[in-house]
Records
---
Amino acid sequence: MTKREEELAALRSGERPCVRSGQYWSKEEREKLLRDFESGAGISELALELNRTEPAVVQELKNAGAFENQSRHRGRNQPKPSGCPSCCQCPVCTVWDCPNRGKEFWDAGTVR
């Protein structure tokens, strides 16, 4: 295991606390974060360099608009569509003519 990998393992396990954990990001840190991320640096590498946790780095990149979530937010209490029987459990649907049978989510749409 390399020294960098050992540092990362200690950071993830909590053996080594982040020096900057809980502190505000400075303008210089944000600029360095974006510059390094755009040049190909990984999240773990950035976390070690900036003495931050990996989730903090990801959150700051999201806040800066460097990337977006790749999945949409799912609402938990959405009503089922009108064509779907009330007894339907679409991911494991037993109603053969249900329009949502076989879809991972009942509102997943169609594949073209």
Note: The chain has a mean pLDDT of 76.
---
Amino acid sequence: MTLSRGEIYLANLNPQKKPNEIGKLRPVVVVQSDFINENGYPTTIVVPLSTKLIDDVSPLRYRITKREKLLYDSDALIAHIRAIDNGRFVERIASLTVHEMEEIRRCIEEVIS
């Protein structure tokens, strides 16, 4: 499976190590560059999604509306960005627009700067 930046995949995030970590089978947004994605690197940097929506908490969350196989509006949990093994990906379920990826990138920069 070739992953692409800006696509949403279903991924198995179990086991979680601590209660504050995001676990279970859930959608994630690929935020890693396609240069790395296309060159066989064994892990991918993702942002997990949650259907437990909280309004007005940017830059910690970014709202993504339902589309394709993403059945519910979801929040991208920016502070939970992480690298996962490529074997954790189950299937592609949707993709984001260029504008949405720019907003997620902006949120990530705000959180880590």
Note: The mean pLDDT is 95.
